[in-house]
Input
Amino acid sequence: MSMTANKLNFFTLLKLPAAYFCGVRTLFIDTSRCIVSVKHRWINQNPFKSMFWAVQGMAAELSTGALVMGKIKATQKPISMLVISNKAVFTKKVTGRVLFTCHDGQRIDKVIADALRTGEGQTIWLQSTGVNKDGVVVSTFDFEWSIKVKPVKKHN
Output
């Protein structure tokens, strides 16, 4: 996979500046797993002096979306991706660093293959779990991604 943590962090700076300036950083990515880190700071806190839920969501979404982007890039085919639904559960106040990990990379291969084979849009739910420095789960996010093969443009 040509996608690296450094490339994703540069991508975040250019294309997702709100996430970048809130401290969202990719630590690791391979074909099956992506780990994204974010630390509670003044810029990403809520009025209760903990991390704003949306900042957690940005980190969690990146951990799932980076895997989808990497798989799509590897096909060298014109495929679009879009979050169409999400849900989250918050179980602990976040005041330090959180690591969001998605382990669903292998499941994405079948969905992309089905989209390429059928030409029809496909969906997949991917999960990212946020864990604090003590190993306690602080939040769990589920994102439903839509994968569609883009129509080939014909030149006259």
Remarks:
- The first strand starts at residue 25 and ends at 29.
